[in-house]
């Protein structure tokens, strides 16, 4: 059973040992976990559904107004979502959830919802971290359209390497269906266990090995989108010069233009060999020089993930196994990677000869910068736990610490200043509350032109909802402002949602925003899908 107020399966427990606890206490002061609200208490606070009996019985697909269904569908995984759930400050929830069994049910459902003057929000895996699923305020009832039953592989064209899925399929299920046929997609966001194909497309997701397989923009070949008043079919073509690309209108549309019901994706054969190798470099400057050079040499690595010195230290401290880590650190120090060292995890994927060749090309480049390889031992551990690290959030909460992450991308000259500005903004924001903030950063998507910059902020939760919420709001605003001030995008991979919507204009400009607004108005003149994601709620014509 999936946790209702945290990450992942209830049966999976991450722990932090005494050493890690001591490390956090030294950095932040001792944490005091607040008393979590029980599920029963949270459900008791749900407002009644505003749907009338006639609406409940007249829907073309059965609706659920079960409190737990409504609660689970109305929250994602942002820290704001966590705070509301953990403290039982539930706030807005949807009025009903609908679970279509077939994609054919969606067209009549949207037509009916429009006639009833409802709002509809599609929900995939509910892993959004930017407030996508919070129902908007207002008089109109909100229906969450759950895609969870739409998970079938519809067709597989081996000669074109294309597979078509219903868009609600979750990561592990999608990979399992492809692997059964000897294929794979290779899209592995850290939220892979729960995120859906439609959600990836709607939020322009990026996976851990997007350097090899491509971001979702490269994987999404075409599909079907049910717009509020029409159906949009986008054919799969290897390339097209026929004007603007309609796929680009759907990518990042965040549920505002239509419901992605089916998607064709570009698949690959399962590679013969895959090695993850951990290197250490003596300093951040050397580490950044290494990933920049590797990306610009276009060697074809499947992953480059560079942790800064604080993230490297934190990873080693939270890993447990203090004895083995102490031995590793002594060895690295002897080889020139002492205090200030940075860890670089590299992925080499492909045919056996190709993997050997890539490693042979990367090795001298890394050694010239003082890099020390620790072989595949740490890499194998990383690969085995690549989706388990997220569970640490639960353990940290139970120790009294909140975790939030903010991410961007920018060109190379801005990368280090961006990292410094984001971390500084986070620390200053918490200092304003008399609190410390443990901030650290990695570069996980490295391009010849620049890089993503992904910072994590750990701080004490606070005694009550109001103080915790105020800390989070200050942090979010300060880091978002730092990102746009330093010339980054407000999101490299998490999307815009409601939390980042105020900062979208910094990237798109007034003209760009007007174009986006007119596209939304054209697709959805009555505001059926007006969730407030991406762009604030707009005036609408009558249904
Ligand atoms: C711990 C953690 C780690 C993460 N790591 C990554 C990462 O590495 N890379 C990354 O890219 N993201 C990451 N994310 C963010 C999140 O997983 C992605 O944004 C993901 O793509 C959301 O997919 P979902 O199915 O959960 O969508 P949801 O959260 O259900 O919805 C997100 C938005 O997409 C819309 N939507 C969903 N399905 C459809 C559909 N079929 N049609 C139209 N609109 C739809 C919703 O209306 C909503 O606006 C992470 C999140 C968490 C909690």
Describe this structure in words.
The protein has 543 residues and is of the alpha+beta class. It has five domains: 1-30 and 387-496, GMP Synthetase, Chain A, domain 3 (2-Layer Sandwich), CATH 3.30.300; 31-146, 2-Layer Sandwich (Uridine Diphospho-n-acetylenolpyruvylglucosamine Reductase, domain 2); 153-269, Uridine Diphospho-n-acetylenolpyruvylglucosamine Reductase, domain 3 (2-Layer Sandwich); 273-384, Alpha-Beta Plaits (2-Layer Sandwich), CATH 3.30.70.3450; 500-543. It contains 20 helices and 18 strands. It has helices at 18-28, 39-44, 53-58, 67-73, 79-86, 106-115, 171-179, 197-203, 210-213, 216-219, 246-250, 284-296, 309-318, 322-334, 352-368, 377-384, 392-398, 412-431, 465-485, 504-523; strands at 63-64, 96-98, 119-123, 142-146, 153-157, 162-166, 183-184, 220-226, 231-234, 259-266, 268-269, 273-281, 303-307, 342-350, 372-373, 401-411, 438-443, 450-460. It has a seven-stranded antiparallel beta sheet, sandwiched between helices. The radius of gyration is 23 Å and the shape is globular. The model has no long low-confidence stretch (mean pLDDT 96). The structure holds flavin-adenine dinucleotide.
């Amino acid at each position: 059973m999936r946790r209702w107020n945290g990450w992942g399966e209830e049966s999976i427990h991450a722990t932090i040992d005494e050493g890690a606890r001591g490390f956090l206490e030294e950095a932040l002061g001792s944490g005091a976990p607040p008393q979590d609200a029980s599920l029963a208490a949270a459900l008791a606070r749900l407002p009644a559904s505003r749907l009338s009996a006639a609406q409940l019985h007249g829907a073309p697909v059965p609706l659920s107004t079960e409190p737990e269904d409504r609660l689970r569908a109305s929250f994602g995984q942002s820290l704001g979502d966590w705070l509301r759930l953990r403290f039982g400050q539930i706030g807005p929830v949807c009025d009903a959830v609908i679970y279509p069994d077939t994609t054919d049910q969606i067209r009549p459902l949207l037509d009916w919802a429009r006639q009833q003057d409802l709002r509809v929000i599609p929900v995939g895996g509910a892993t959004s971290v930017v407030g996508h699923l919070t129902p908007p305020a207002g008089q109109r009832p909100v229906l969450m359209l759950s895609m969870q039953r739409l998970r079938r592989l519809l067709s597989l064209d081996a000669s074109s390497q294309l597979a078509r899925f219903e868009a609600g399929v979750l990561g592990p299920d999608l990979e399992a269906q492809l692997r059964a046929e000897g294929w794979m997609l290779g899209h592995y966001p850290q939220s892979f266990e729960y995120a859906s194909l439609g959600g990836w497309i709607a939020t322009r997701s990026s996976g851990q090995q997007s350097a090899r397989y491509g971001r979702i923009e490269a994987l999404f070949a075409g599909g079907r989108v049910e717009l509020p008043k029409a159906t949009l079919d986008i054919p799969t073509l290897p390339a097209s010069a026929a004007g603007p690309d309609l796929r680009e209108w759907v990518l990042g549309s965040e549920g505002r233009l239509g419901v992605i019901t089916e998607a064709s994706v570009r698949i690959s054969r399962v590679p013969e060999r895959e090695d993850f190798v951990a290197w250490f470099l003596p300093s951040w400057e050397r580490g950044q020089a290494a990933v920049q050079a590797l990306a610009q040499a276009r060697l074809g690595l499947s992953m480059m993930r560079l942790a800064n010195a604080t993230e490297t230290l934190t990873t080693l401290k939270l890993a447990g196994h203090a004895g083995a880590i102490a031995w590793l650190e002594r060895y690295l120090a002897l080889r020139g990677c002492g205090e200030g060292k940075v860890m670089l995890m590299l992925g080499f994927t492909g045919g056996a000869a190709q993997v050997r060749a890539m490693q042979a090309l990367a090795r001298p480049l890394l050694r010239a910068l003082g890099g020390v390889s620790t072989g595949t031992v740490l890499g194998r551990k990383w690969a085995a736990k690549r989706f388990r690290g997220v569970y640490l959030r639960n353990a940290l909460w139970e120790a009294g610490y909140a975790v939030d992450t903010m991410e961007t991308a920018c060109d190379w000259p801005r990368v280090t200043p961006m990292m410094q500005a984001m971390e500084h903004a986070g620390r200053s924001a918490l200092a304003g509350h008399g609190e410390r903030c443990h901030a650290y950063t990695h570069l996980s998507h490295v391009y010849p032109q620049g890089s993503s910059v992904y910072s994590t902020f750990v701080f004490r939760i606070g005694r009550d909802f109001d103080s915790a919420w105020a800390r989070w709001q200050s942090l979010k605003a300060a880091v978002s402002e730092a990102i746009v001030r330093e010339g980054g995008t407000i999101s490299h991979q998490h999307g815009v949602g409601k939390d980042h919507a105020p900062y979208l204009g910094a990237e798109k400009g007034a003209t760009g925003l007007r174009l986006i607004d007119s596209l939304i108005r054209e697709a959805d003149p009555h505001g059926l899908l007006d969730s407030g994601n991406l762009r604030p709620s707009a005036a609408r014509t009558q249904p």
